[in-house]
């Protein structure tokens, strides 16, 4: 879906669409590791108060 949107932007808007596509890919590359992967690996459990206190000792 993202690739189809990128092709559409490049085809309709030319160079501006290509730049918007690159900005979108960079944005996705920055957002996914910080918001998507921690949830997938259960890292949010480490942020609980009792877990932090346990490892702080």
Keywords:
single chain; 57 residues; mainly alpha; 0% strand; rod-shaped
Enumerate how many helices there are, as a single number: 3
Unreliable stretches, pLDDT < 50, 5 or more residues?
none
Instruction: Determine the structural class based on helices, strands and strand pairing.
Output: mainly alpha
Tell me, what's the shape?
Answer: rod-shaped
Helix content: over 70%
What sequence of helices (H) and strands (E) makes up the elements?
HHH
Walk me through the structure.
The protein is an all-alpha fold. The protein has one domain (2-56). The protein has 3 helices and no strands. Helix 1 runs antiparallel to helix 2. The protein is rod-shaped, with a radius of gyration of 19 Å. The model has no long low-confidence stretch (mean pLDDT 83).
Fold blueprint:
Blueprint: H1 2-13, H2 15-41, H3 49-56
Provide a quick synopsis of the model.
The chain has 57 residues and is mainly alpha-helical. The protein is built from three helices and no strands.
């Amino acid at each position: 879906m993202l690739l189809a949107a990128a092709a559409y932007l490049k085809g309709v808007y030319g160079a501006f669409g290509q730049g918007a596509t690159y900005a979108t890919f960079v944005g996705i590359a920055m957002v996914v590791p910080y918001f998507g992967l921690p949830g997938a690996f259960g890292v949010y459990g480490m942020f609980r108060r009792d877990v932090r206190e346990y490892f702080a000792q």
